[in-house]
Design a protein that fits this description.
Elements (H helix, E strand, L loop, with lengths): L12 H23 L1 H13 L9 H23 L5 H25 L12
Length: 123
Amino acid sequence: MSNFEQTPQALSARDEAAKLNALIAYGLMIAGLFTGVFWIIGAVWAMVKKADAQGTVFEDHYSNIISIFWWGLGLSIVGFILLFFIIGYFILVGVWVWSIFKIIKGLAQITSNKSYHNSSGRY
């Protein structure tokens, strides 16, 4: 069998729960891109459920969601401070685009039952 023809691996109940909770967190983060409040709820959800996902294939998705939140929050604060200067707008747009990329990559990986980094390096 070639590398491209892999049989789907059955997930344990623990893996399924970890996947579902990560998908909920990703969904909340997507809604948070437009509302803000759900951004925080998605991050808190991931922080609370991260311990339940330890040892599963989806464990690093929780780290990804939490990382998106903290980096996004920090860089957004810098962007808001610099709104007086034009650079702040570019920072805020950059954070938004970067967040979308990270969330879409996470969703693509998790719906394929893969870890976020999948041994292909970090972004």
